[in-house]
Amino acid sequence: MRAAVIESFTQPPVYREFDEPASGNTVEVVAAALHPLTRSRATGAHYSSSGILPLVPGMDAVVRDEQGRLCYALVDDDRFGTFAERTSVDPRRCIPLPEGVDAVAVAAAMNPVMASWVALRRRAPLVPGARVLVLGATGSSGSMALRVARRFGAGEVVAAGRNAERLAELDADRTVRLDELATVADVDVVIDFLWGDATAQALVDIVSNRADRSQPLTWIEIGSMAGQTSPIPSAALRACALTMVGSGLGSVSARDFVAELPEIAQAVSAGELSVPVRTVPLAEIGEVWEPSRTWRERVVFLP
Q1: Which residue has the higher pLDDT, 217 or 9?
Q2: Global pTM?
Q3: Quick one: fold of 125-246?
């Protein structure tokens, strides 16, 4: 079969012939999205990467099983993923999709929605009426976090980012640039897709300007688009009632991720949560592997 294969952590995938998975439960891949996490694992940079080559990237997909049913599947094997004509799935991580569903739309949206959905359900359940700030709101996952937070009962959602044009397009109650976070310091929850120096400065700006530092502040770290490490000052951790948690592979069990999938898939399939999509033949993966700041869509490969 044909697949996109990572042969070097420093080079884009190569589209070529590759042996089919030897294990059972082989399915046909219908549509598979390119997520930041997928790139990170494929370069060996992510903490969940095995560091072993060659590998077929891709962590999830809409697939067709042997009975012809469309399903959404999470793939845990970081050496044989979904960027191929066929892949192997664990039935426990595979959920059926409604008849007539838009496979491309589901493939594009499930991961961006899942990031904040699982965090607010499994790591730091949202209190109704809470004020929520999303750092890195202009990305796919960040923009979905605004809508997920509102869906879960947030009283106010605030979007923060660097791109003023994209901020203006978001479905948020307020928008601020990253250098304006002092004006929204009295939030209750921060959903952080940035980390790095950006998070360190954001934490200082918010903690320093809270009207009542004894009021709880929950900081949920989900992504690291601005850096893998952050120089958090110790005073910021001591100066307010801060709880900082991470949400992702490992901090949330596979069982808990899968438990949330049916409700997420229902919302995505109904069009309640969607992201812009750019479809690309899998054979052209090398042309779109490197992220482009000019693209606003999530890339979905069609094998």
Answers
A1: 217
A2: 0.91
A3: Rossmann fold (3.40.50)
